[in-house]
Amino acid sequence: MAADGKLEDSLVSDEGKYGGVRNDQRTSKGMLLGIGQDETVARIEDRIATWSLIPKDNGEAMQILRYEHGQKYLPHHDFFGNGGQDFLNGERVATVLMYLSDVEKGGETVFPLSEAMYVQPKDDGSWSDCAKRGYAVKPKKGDAILFFSLQPDASLDTSSLHGSCPVISGVKWSATKWIHEEDDLQAICATGVAVQLFGEFHHSKLWFLYKHPKESNLARFC
Prior knowledge:
Blueprint: E1 8-9, E2 12-14, E3 17-21, E4 29-32, H1 39-52, E5 63-67, E6 73-76, E7 92-99, E8 105-106, E9 109-111, E10 135-137, E11 144-148, E12 162-164, E13 167-169, E14 172-180, H2 184-191, E15 195-197, E16 200-202, E17 210-211, H3 217-221
Antiparallel strand pairs: 1-4, 2-3, 4-5, 5-14, 6-12, 7-11, 7-14, 8-13, 9-10, 9-12, 15-16, 16-17
């Protein structure tokens, strides 16, 4: 893929550390796309909003990920568990995972706490050992899954625990879209203290880097 030369080590969030940290629990490489950076990205974001029933402005920048042999993301939650205090736009509500390639074996998305694991047959030899530890979805190019990190009453849904199983054969490409409780840009504008640097917007309470295609975006949205 054309993204190969732009990939960097994937990070995990760590309270008090801007931008996240490297951790052996997540060994993929990735990059961010600008929010609505082109017609294709904007169209995907529109479809995600329609599917999730959550406004597209509540979403973070889309993340492209590559998992090679043995690379994985151990089971984790996408919510922060602190009421979303690290983000001005609140807790993460939902996640959309999009599979951009087929994988010969491994690389499944697994949900270890899902009750559906008990009714999902996995005796045909096509599943990795990791996938057998929960309800699992095989990566298939063009497919996508949507799951929620919060209950309807806004309490944390601990059964949303999930991970990316190690790739055994092939290469896994995927895209992730995290969706929050509130409008990303409006939350930033409301503070009046966003800083524009080289087309990238930073905020002291945001560890995530918001990238936008035009330097005029801040003035346009605020």
